[in-house]
Amino acid sequence: MTSSTVSLRERDSPIYKENVQNVFIQTKSHFGRVDIVVNNAGIFDENDVKKCTSVNLNSVICGTMLGVEHMRKNKEGGEGGVVVNMASTAGLQPYPLIPVYTATKHGIVGYTRCWGANPDFPYQQVRVNCLCPHLTNTSLLQLTPEQKAAGVVRHVRLWEAWYPMAMKTALRCVCVCVCAIGTEKCFGVL
């Protein structure tokens, strides 16, 4: 099993899509096909709406579109596959302290649901699913001094008390299970 990643540093430039496209081309060249795409991107930056939207939503849309393009059965070399978009529980309910982040994750959920209603599925054979984990112990929870001073810590502690923190390994297991499901009609938001 191998994976490839693309840096989000140039996500606002035309070069970003080209770099993502190159990852797909290299993967197909090496392995013969692409089977699974996991779009996992997220930042908290309520002060930079463009950056937050670009990373959290636009990069997921780009990865999904290119993934479907390279995996769809009605294209030479495509054998179908699975796209897993990582959203958040913030995509299912409001988090008033982080409205921009919440909006981007709602966008991922809505975008994924649109793919679930895709009338071209019988020809493409690419399932698009979305996982909505709660807080996980990632670098997103490493607060800056400014965030700490702004009282974000208190709110993170409240969230931790309300919901048990998901383990990264548990999330990986769910992702693997979603990808392994062989049914043609497995779409949705988990």
TrEMBL record:
PROSITE patterns assigned: ADH_SHORT
Domain of life: Eukaryota
Pfam family, one: adh_short
SUPFAM superfamilies: NAD(P)-binding Rossmann-fold domains
Entry keyword annotation includes Transcription: no
Keywords tagged on the record: Oxidoreductase
Listed PANTHER family: 15-HYDROXYPROSTAGLANDIN DEHYDROGENASE [NAD(+)]
Protein name: 15-hydroxyprostaglandin dehydrogenase [NAD(+)]
Top-level taxonomy: Eukaryota, Metazoa, Spiralia, Lophotrochozoa, Brachiopoda
